[in-house]
Structures are given as C-alpha cells and as structure tokens.
Design goal:
The chain is 2% helix and 42% strand. It is built from one helix and 14 strands, in the order ββββββββββββββα.
Length: 203
C-alpha cells in the first residue's frame, strides 16, 4: 500500500515524547492508452512515450471523448497533468473539458456543450475557446458543475488566449483532507475551490 503509519519518538528534558504520522506516497505513471476508452471522433496518434489523443479534427460538427476506465477514489489525493493543444485559429470552436463523473464512459456532447453538458453529477474544468453565453468574450478556463455550461459562479473563471499554436500544461490537483481542488496552467495556479467536499456535495 502507498499509505503507511510511523511513530516518531524524541527525548526531551521532560522525558520521551512520541507522535504518530501517516505518509501517503502518490502513485505516478505516464500515459498508457490502453487505460482509456475513446468515443466519437477521438483517435490515438503515435505510440509509447509519444502517444497523444486527438479529440476532433479541425472541422465542424465533430465530437470526441477520452474516458479513463478506472474511477478516481476521492477519499485520496490525486494530481493529474496533461499537455493540451487547442490549435492556432482564433475562429475555432468550441473547446474541451476535463470531467469527473460517475455515470459511464458513454457520456459526452457536441458544440457548446464542450463534452460535459447535461452530465449530472459532474465536475468539469472547461477550456472554452468560443463565446456562447459566457461571462467573458475571451477564451477562458472555468470549473463547472452538474453539466451546466452557463453558470460560471462555482469558482470563477480565468481568461487566457488558448488558440495561439502553443502546447500548454494543465494540472488538476485534489487534496482530500483539505477538501480543495486546484487547477494550474503552465505551472501557475489559476482556479481553486477550497474547503469544499466535492465527493459529498457533488457526487
């Protein structure tokens, strides 16, 4: 098990003092395409260390989803990083989303639904590159809950140009004890929902 309990004892002028600590070592692994199920127009490009997923081609009316076949245990921490590329055409649409949901690997939606519209319960981090009904006219990243694509009040939003031909590192971190979910972009924290139990309140 990656979790272990240790007792540390020290000696002071008043005698021996002991405390117990629990240490959990997070499992770390690279991308294994066999761990995922692809839906819609999603495809796998390359293999081994150079493998990547393409959700859609640069044409309209497509939908793609990549679901991990193993559910995350929200009683434990997780820290997931991914490289994201959203093209180099500012007229492109609609975007993508990182989604947590307990229903099935057949979920998904097209267009402004960004793949998560209507999925409830769910927690999504949307990377929205097209203005529909939004709090901002620019590209943005936001945490969204229960498949609602229009309510951006859960944790606010972060405006950033994403269709600039650059690969970006997106990181999603859940701290179970602190009940805190954090999103980083290129090493910088951009969104956080602190002291909120997503397991109890959403799922």
């Amino acid at each position: 098990s990656p979790r272990a309990t240790y007792t540390v004892t020290g000696t002071t002028p008043c005698g021996a003092v002991s405390t117990t600590i629990e240490i959990e070592v997070l499992e770390c692994s690279g991308l294994n395409v066999n761990d995922f199920l692809l839906r819609g127009n999603a495809t796998t490009l390359g293999s081994g260390a150079s493998a990547e997923f393409r959700l859609t081609d640069a044409v309209g009316g497509q939908f793609g989803a990549v679901w991990n076949q193993t559910r995350l245990d929200l009683t434990r921490d997780f820290d997931i990083s991914s490289q994201v590329y959203l093209g180099n055409n500012n007229a492109g649409a609609e975007g993508i989303a990182f989604v947590l949901q307990p229903l099935s690997t057949n979920q998904g939606s097209t267009g402004g639904g960004l793949g998560y519209a209507g999925i409830s319960p769910s927690l999504a981090v949307e990377f929205d590159t097209w203005t529909n009904i939004e709090p901002t006219s620019s590209d943005h990243i936001a945490m969204m809950i229960n498949g609602n694509t229009s309510d951006h009040t859960f944790a606010g939003h972060h405006a950033v140009e994403m269709e600039d031909g650059a690969w970006r590192t997106a990181r999603f971190k859940w701290e179970a004890a602190a009940k805190t979910f954090t999103v980083f972009l290129d090493g910088t924290q951009i969104l956080q929902k602190a002291n909120y139990d997503i397991a109890a309140n959403i799922f």
